[in-house]
Amino acid sequence: MQRFQRLDVLSPHLLSVLRIFAAGSFMTHGTMKLFGWPAAFEYPLNPMLYTAGFLEVIGGFFLLIGLFSRPTAFILSGLMAFAYFIAHSPNGFFPVLNHGEAAMLYCFLFLYISAAGPGLWSVDALQEPKSQMG
Question: Looking at the whole model, is its pTM more than 0.70?
């Protein structure tokens, strides 16, 4: 047990890595909707999808650099819960069958980041005392 406690030192760093990679991946959902990059979005856009794309790009960027991480992650968690229940759950209960796995995972990942904080490698960490950074 004591062997694994040494890994606790890595926790704030790995939290930052998780936030950075998740935010970068999440941003691409928005860039597809708004800019057609890295590929065109496959459905016609309506005001709700434009709004989602805007939140994905701006919120994803804020999370990527770790700026306003907790409130941004909380808002994006809600966005993904909304996306899951609006777009995926009508197609069945199981996320693997209704294609809602990504939305569900992003929802809970962002909810975790809103509670745990952005980790050490963030703009927020530069602005707050170390005792408050998760």
Answer: yes
